[in-house]
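Whiteboard transcription, Tuesday session. T.W. wrote the C-alpha cells on the left side:
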C-alpha cells in the first residue's frame, strides 16, 4: 500500500521522558506532509527522539519520519540547511 502525504496525521511525544515535560504536546495535522515537516524542521532533536507519527494505522518512529521527509515525493519545500562556514584562519595555517 502506497503512503499518502495527504492523509491526516497525529504526532505523539515520547511515552517516557526523563524531563517532567515533553518538548511538545500531542498534535494533530491536516496532512501527513505538514506533520513530517514539523517534526523534522521544528522539533528539537531530543523531542523527536522517542516521538512517533501515526497515519491511519501506520506508525513511524524518528527514523521513519526522517525517511518520509527525505523521499523524492515529499510534497512540501524543505528548509535549506546552511553549509558550514569555512574557517579561513585554519586554511591559512595549513598553507
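and on the right, the sequence the group agreed on:
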Amino acid at each position: 500500500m502506497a503512503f499518502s502525504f495527504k492523509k491526516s496525521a497525529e504526532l505523539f511525544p515520547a511515552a517516557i521522558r526523563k524531563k517532567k515535560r515533553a518538548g511538545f504536546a500531542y498534535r494533530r495535522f491536516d496532512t501527513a506532509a505538514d506533520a513530517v515537516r514539523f517534526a523534522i524542521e521544528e522539533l528539537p532533536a531530543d523531542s523527536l527522539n522517542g516521538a512517533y507519527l501515526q497515519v491511519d494505522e501506520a506508525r513511524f518512529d524518528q527514523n521513519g519520519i526522517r525517511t518520509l521527509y527525505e523521499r523524492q515525493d515529499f510534497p512540501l519545500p524543505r528548509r535549506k540547511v546552511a553549509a558550514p562556514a569555512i574557517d579561513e584562519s585554519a586554511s591559512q595555517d595549513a598553507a
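Someone added at the bottom: The mean pLDDT is 82.
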